[in-house]
Amino acid sequence: MNLLVALAFYASTVFGFTNHLLILSVIPLFFQRNTALKFSESDFKFIFFLLFIVIFSLVNNIIGFFILDDLSFPFFVFTVFSFLFYKLINEKVLFYLLLFILVEIFCALIQYNLGVSSFFSSSEKYFEFSNDALYFKKSAGLSASSSVLAYKVLIAFFIVDFLFKDRKIKFFLYVALIVGLYVTFNRTSIVAAISFFIIAHRAYLKALFFNRRGVYLLPLFLVLVLFLTPSAYSVFINEFSRGNADAGVDLSYRTLVWGHYIDFISNNLMLGNFSYKYISELNVAGYGQHNFHAHNSILMIFSSHGVLISILFLFLLASKINNNNLKYIIPIFIYSFAQYGVFWGLSFLDILLAFFLMTNSRITLNRND
Q1: Residue 364 — pLDDT band, cuts 50, 70, 90?
Q2: What is the pLDDT of residue 31?
Q3: Which H/E stretch holds residue 8?
Q4: How far apart (Å, rounded) are the C-alpha atoms in residues 93 and 68?
Q5: Which residue has the higher pLDDT, 194 or 292?
Q6: Residue 143: DSSP 8-state
Q7: Domain count along the chain
């Protein structure tokens, strides 16, 4: 059962498949006796308030039905399923997901050495490497794009931290995942992964630099930073600016898209797009006339739902953040600040967000598991 659940979750992120496959993850429940999803009182309270917000969004949908010409499915309903499906995840499901991600990183490494972005030449994201900048040498593994694999690598960092205590195992796995960040070179995922390490090891960093040894270590660290800064900064800017250091850090077309979405939100403050997903058609240099989502999950939810529903939902999520899950939640939102990461309704990342928000206990795996 656990393998089938993990396969359904993971397959939804693979090239050629969609989030609809997530529905298959519940099928194993019908073939095992005495199997049921167990919810705590805290879970029921959370889902009750979530349903309350969903009802608001459905009322918003009804208002929009009489106003909008182009209607889509009321996607926010699926958010409830994300906060139900997370109960299918246990330590074995996480372990299988980690294995799948490691296999995909290996595939991406092969692609990187072959000089292609994907095994699937039919993919619109397929290209052959022709530029020395890492931004133009990104492998997608088995995913539709390198950004999809990159967020799975980010999730894999969380899984390793969540499952394992053995430092040697964690170090080995982290090295493999860093390779995954390198061959995908998604700048947002890299920043999110760095934030994860800082938050996850903040106690160690504090003990290292702010004790008696820190009297010597902190100045030494600062000297090394000052010594390496000129060359390191040059390399950093060159890679993060797509190989054009003179242009500074390049945010692609995001500033234009973000500006449009901010304008839309300011003009439709209360009801947004009547809780229908807002996707705007924009004319962007290099892309032509094209449909763009906001490349920012917060802008997506505010543009779709308006201020009231969005704030209620975000406050509900914030109520579940604690010291145990902070190191997972903040990086997910950092990633989602420059990508449309969470808030699809029902998606792999939405389910993992629900899992890390709602699961307080630490699960560990021994070497023999």
Answers
A1: very low
A2: 63
A3: helix 2-11
A4: 42
A5: 194
A6: B
A7: 1
